[in-house]
Amino acid sequence: MFNFNFGHKKPDNKQLIIVGTVLSVIIATLSQCTGISESGLWDLLDEAQRKFFPGGILNELILRDPNAIDRRIKRDVDRAIDQVTPEYNRIIEEADKKYKPRYSEKDIDPNLQTGESKLLGGEMRICAVWANDCPTENK
Question: Which domain, by its residues, includes 89?
């Protein structure tokens, strides 16, 4: 009889245990020799297998480790943020130019200000460009 499976065949637990044990020993040895943390080496292995061997037994092994998944998610989110940051900065810079607040200072009103208060100058204000009573010229 034939045992036909649709889709991707999952590796059995025996294979995962053997590969996991061998990789753990190799990574622990490399960590001791190089001084690189074991989690850093696992992350390097994860990125390499994602690029060159996606969907293999290494991916299945990493998917079963909650710590490796957390680090993968953090790397993916950080990578996504780094990719959109330049566009976000450009949009914010354009908005800052377009909606730059206006600074205005009115002339001294002699009826309201007397004596030493005249030395302070006129009324000063910061105004949003979309406000109806915002002066168009800055002094």
Answer: 13-98
